[in-house]
Design goal:
The chain is mostly helical. The chain has 10 helices and no strands. 40% of the residues are buried.
Length: 235
């Protein structure tokens, strides 16, 4: 394929919308860094507080490391998800998106992926700090932990972006988003914590939890994209 045929203008219309929404969101966030700084601060603060509160030792990580890690990631992720559509409010950008002929699933998909990438970047940055503060056992299976991190973060990004679109114009948006997201995401959160705990201990046998998490990802990604027209019109 030549360089000319690979330009965005040669892509299908929905793919161009997806790519431009994704690139715009990442460019705006990397330029301002409001959400990135807040995510890093909240997650790091939780890890440091827990490490001092529990006098973190390897025994604590063996029994509760997965839960402590995902508590930090959940708080950081809510910041990114809250801003997924909040940045569209100034200058009536969200109204422009609604009035445009852009495919709604492509718009929502671009938002999902941008939230996923921002959350994943912070999480990968914090993993080494978590390993240091909590004295993670040397036998931990870090490749598997990162795999769970990616699948779990996508579960939060796909469902959270959907609910962010629904709640963007509500008065209590910051409160409504976690109230909508967290109860629905309980199966995924349990799967994240359990499988992460197993891999931090260097064990195996997390197949059931991985299947549950991947099934959640597939089902709610498809539902979100199928309902994109509705949620972007009423949000």
């Amino acid at each position: 394929m030549s360089a000319e045929t690979a330009t965005p203008e040669r892509l299908p219309a929905s793919a161009r919308v997806f790519a431009r929404v994704l690139a715009r969101d990442l460019r705006l966030e990397l330029r301002g860094r409001e959400a990135l700084n807040a995510m890093l601060f909240y997650a790091l603060l939780i890890i440091v507080i827990f490490s001092f509160a529990f006098e973190a030792q390897s025994e604590l990580t063996i029994h509760a490391g997965g839960g402590l890690l995902w508590v930090a990631f959940l708080f950081a992720g809510l910041v990114a998800l809250d801003r997924a559509f909040l940045r569209e409010i100034p200058e009536a950008c969200l109204t422009g998106l609604r009035l445009s002929p852009a495919a709604r699933p492509a718009v929502l998909g671009g938002k999902m992926v941008s939230s996923f990438l921002l959350m994943t970047g912070i999480e990968l940055l914090l993993l080494p700090l978590f390993a240091i503060f909590f004295n993670v056992p040397p036998g931990a299976r870090w490749g598997a932990v990162i795999g769970v991190l990616l699948a779990g973060t996508w579960a939060l990004a796909s469902t959270g972006t959907f609910f962010s679109a629904m709640s963007v114009h509500t008065r209590y948006r910051a409160l409504l988003l976690p109230l909508l997201l967290l109860p629905l995401a309980i199966p995924a959160v349990i799967a994240m914590v359990q499988s992460t705990q197993i891999f931090l201990n260097g064990g195996s046998g997390a197949g059931y939890w991985i299947e549950l998490l991947l099934g959640f990802d597939v089902i709610f990604t498809c539902l979100g994209l199928l309902l994109a027209d509705v949620v972007l019109e009423v949000g």
